[in-house]
């Protein structure tokens, strides 16, 4: 349903934005990771040195060891994450979850600093604890600003510990410091959430631009495919019509009694090719407009013979011997006449191209019954054959073995056969060259006499 598809598209876009946002958030944090780690290590080391002559030195040392252990664990985790990301894409969702977890752990460790040591510290010690706590609070939120949840996870425990200590003292000065601390933290977190919002908007804009560029590239690619198909399909009837007109021109310079055939014959053939060209253009126009091709009952043998007559002039130029063994009793199919002409014109033209540089030039077209409900047509040439490397993808668009080929002819053939519920494949010709074999369903015996 259209509504369901639209909802799925919106969900996919939201998940794409969220995934890109998480990756960008982690990247932004990792840019400041080592600076933040070093800052935390140095701050804890400063407090340890300031407590060497204090009675609480062992407690401070224990606290510092806990902080350093957490920093080492986080650094090891970061090193492992970088090693994994070099081998393949990492899971950004899990990375954000781990970041929040470690932010909470390190925040609790720094929250213990004022909670454990502020009450019994000297005035200078209290001032140092306040400076270290405030510095870690601001520096932590700054480093984790791209991930507000991690910023809250880190700063929350520190702020709670500091407020608890300040309010426990209870005098006016400490209460005012607590109020200032709350305001300071609120401004920091507001900046972090605004930064995430701007980052998300930027990523959404980038994704929209990328999708627009991708759509434009696809449209250009589609236009190129249509142009290539148009050039390919128009070239054959135009070339044939040109050849017939040139034949008529040569005959016009020969006295009427010495002409090998009446001048009306090549002119009539040229008109036939121009009519084929008109049909091809109409068919392509209908395809672009999304109209289904009209199908009717027709005889494949008649189509094949008509295509061979069209290519008679080129056949004579290349000195190609044609053997047609169209022996299938039932050749009536329900098909689009223009597409069937395209199908066999392309196969025969490709066979001619394959034999241009061959010493022996023989084209064999045969038909046979496949049980009672299908006909098999084999188009065999004595050309250079098809290499195994190209054979597996020969019917894909833009794949060609010709120096000047567009790579759309066999792709069109495959599409036509598939549209008519048939099969097509390529086999090596035992005598050298290639055999294009195709099977199409035929009509019942009581309907085939109505075919054209």
UniProtKB/TrEMBL annotation:
GO terms for molecular function: ATP binding; protein histidine kinase activity. The chain crosses the membrane at residues 32-50, 56-79, 99-121, 152-169, 175-193. One of its GO terms (biological process) is phosphorelay signal transduction system. The keyword Ion transport does not apply. This is histidine kinase. Residues 229-444 form the Histidine kinase domain. Signal peptide: none annotated. Its EC number is 2.7.13.3. Keywords: ATP-binding, Kinase, Membrane, Nucleotide-binding, Phosphoprotein, Transferase, Transmembrane, Transmembrane helix, Two-component regulatory system. PANTHER family: PEROXIDE STRESS-ACTIVATED HISTIDINE KINASE MAK3, SENSOR HISTIDINE KINASE. InterPro entries: HATPase_C_sf, HATPase_dom, His_kinase_dom, Sig_transdc_His_kin-like_C. It catalyses: ATP + protein L-histidine = ADP + protein N-phospho-L-histidine. It is an enzyme of class 2 (transferase). SUPFAM superfamilies: ATPase domain of HSP90 chaperone/DNA topoisomerase II/histidine kinase (SSF55874).
């Amino acid at each position: 349903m259209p509504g369901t598809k639209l909802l799925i598209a919106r969900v996919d876009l939201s998940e794409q934005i969220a995934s890109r946002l998480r990756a960008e958030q982690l990247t932004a944090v990792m840019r400041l990771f080592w600076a933040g780690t070093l800052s935390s290590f140095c701050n804890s080391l400063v407090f340890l040195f300031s407590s060497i002559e204090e009675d609480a030195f062992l407690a401070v040392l224990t606290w510092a060891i806990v902080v350093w252990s957490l920093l080492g664990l986080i650094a090891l985790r970061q090193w492992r994450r970088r090693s994994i990301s070099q081998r393949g894409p990492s899971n950004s969702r899990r990375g954000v979850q781990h970041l929040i977890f470690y932010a909470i752990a390190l925040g609790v460790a720094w929250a213990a600093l004022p909670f454990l040591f502020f009450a019994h510290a000297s005035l200078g010690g209290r001032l140092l604890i306040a400076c270290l706590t405030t510095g870690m609070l601001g520096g932590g939120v700054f480093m984790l600003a791209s991930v507000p949840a991690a910023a809250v996870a880190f700063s929350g425990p520190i702020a709670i510990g500091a407020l608890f200590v300040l309010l426990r003292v209870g005098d006016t000065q400490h209460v005012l410091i607590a109020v200032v601390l709350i305001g300071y933290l609120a401004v920091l977190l507001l900046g972090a959430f605004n930064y995430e919002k701007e980052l998300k908007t930027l990523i959404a804009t980038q994704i929209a631009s990328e999708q627009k560029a991708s759509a434009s590239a696809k449209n250009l690619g589609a236009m190129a495919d249509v142009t290539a198909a148009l050039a390919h399909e128009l070239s054959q009837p135009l070339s044939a019509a040109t050849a017939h007109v040139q034949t008529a021109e040569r005959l016009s310079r020969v006295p009427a009694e010495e002409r090998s055939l009446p001048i009306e014959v090549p002119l009539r053939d040229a008109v036939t090719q121009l009519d084929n060209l008109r049909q091809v253009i109409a068919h392509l126009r209908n395809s672009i407009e999304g109209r289904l091709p009209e199908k009717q009952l027709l005889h494949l043998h008649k189509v094949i013979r008509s295509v061979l007559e069209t290519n008679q002039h080129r056949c004579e130029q290349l000195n190609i011997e044609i053997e047609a063994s169209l022996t299938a009793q039932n050749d009536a199919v329900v098909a689009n006449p223009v597409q069937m002409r395209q199908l066999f014109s392309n196969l025969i033209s490709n066979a001619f191209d394959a034999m241009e540089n061959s010493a022996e030039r023989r084209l064999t077209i045969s038909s046979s019954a496949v049980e009672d409900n299908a006909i098999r047509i084999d188009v065999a040439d004595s050309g250079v054959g098809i290499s195994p490397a190209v054979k597996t993808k020969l019917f894909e668009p833009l794949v060609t073995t010709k120096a000047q080929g567009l790579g759309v002819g066999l792709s069109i053939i495959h599409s036509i056969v598939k549209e008519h519920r048939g099969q097509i494949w390529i086999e090596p010709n035992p005598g050298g060259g290639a055999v294009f074999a195709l099977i199409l369903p035929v009509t019942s015996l009581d309907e085939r006499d109505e075919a054209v």
